[in-house]
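**User:** My hope is that you can spare some time for a protein that puzzles me. I have put the entry right below:
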Amino acid sequence: MANQFDKVITVEEALAHFHDGMTLIAGGFGGVGNPPTLIQGILDKGIKDITLISNDTAFPHIGVGKLVAERRVKKVIASHIGSNPNAGAQMTAGELEVEFCPQGILAERVRAGGVGLGGILSDIGIGTIAEKGKEKVLVNGKEYLLETPLTAQVAIVHAKKADRFGNLVYETSARNFNPLVAMAGDITIVEADEIVEIGALCPEEIVTPGVFVNYIVKSEGVNWQWAWEK
């Protein structure tokens, strides 16, 4: 780019960073905060065999749920998949590998990946099937599970506003996992509803600093219908 402080690119340019077999981490919760234009671009480009890290698998016709419904995902790391019957059916049939992680621990694993920690310690799951395959650590006589950090080749984030450097403002609950996800990608691509000039955002409302952002695309808007709109 001619200007290193201007990270705005086209959706087509952004999609050059997506490929078969990639690891993808997405912000959002039940589809709220999922970036619709980037997800549609992944579908249109035919990207498949994705390892998806996300709080959940949304709904069949909403957000990252579309990727699961169209069988573009080979593995998902999530806190739950219950709102997307496709995910459950594919898991039961042995067609989708699912790694479950408690929501709070999932958030902390993503944060650990984003800030470069070697993992976090938690006593959640001690003595249950959740400890299978995990290293145990003794601290002051108490046993903990080592929960490893999560990162991805590409992180996709949805923001309400972005300036051209990538400073981000989120809309209410759509903030959810997005600030953590923005830190956890080798490349972070933001889809913003509104893109403003550098200096136009109030510093107090910026949640994600632009230093974490590589590219920004203009959102074409949500292309699904929410349950409360029916």
Summary: The two ends are 43 Å apart (CA to CA). The mean pLDDT is 96.
